[in-house]
Design brief:
This protein is α+β, with helices and mostly antiparallel strands and about 200 residues long. The protein has a domain of about 70 residues: SH3 type barrels (Roll). Helix content is about 15%, strand content about 25%. It contains two helices and nine strands, in the order ββααβββββββ. Strands 8-7-6-3-9 form a five-stranded antiparallel beta sheet, with no helix packed on it. The protein starts with a strand and ends with a strand.
Length: about 200
Amino acid sequence: MSVQKTPDRRGGVDHPKIHWEEDLRPFRRLPRQPRDYPQQRVPAIIPMAISFALVGVACFLAASFVNQNRPALNFSAPTATIQVIFPTPTEEIPPTATPYVAPTDPPTPEPTALTEGQPGVIGVGVRVVIFGTGGNGLNFRREPSISAEKIRSLPDGTIYEVVGGPQENGGFVWWQLRDPSDGTIGWGVQNYLRPTP
């Protein structure tokens, strides 16, 4: 800045005078030399890792804050129970055998009082036919008794010859018969015998 002294009107003393043209000129400096700063490239994964870590911490803190400040829920989920039922052993009842009931002699009608010599009357030498046993046959026994040994059953419609009798035993009248086919002799109850013509 240049200062020039001029006479002062009030006292004749010179005052400096500013030259505005020179003073308003732009300040000129020498151009600065660019500085060489060392540049280090930062891998992109480091800022990403830091960002994820900050977000995770923020979420954790927010969740902790919410969990601590909300009212506790008294909720209990129903639990499923499994009940195992084991079968109880039961006693095995062996099958019971049904007792065998031997066929019994058919019921016999009351003995009739007949005398020999009358027509249709049974006697020694008369031929008789077996009838009325219901298909079971007449019990042909060795003795005139229901407890005597049974020889066989004489079927209805067969003809035999009376060779002995009569004898009463056990409430029945018995006649001794002979089988003409083989000559077997045994006893039969009169109630199932009928004289042949």
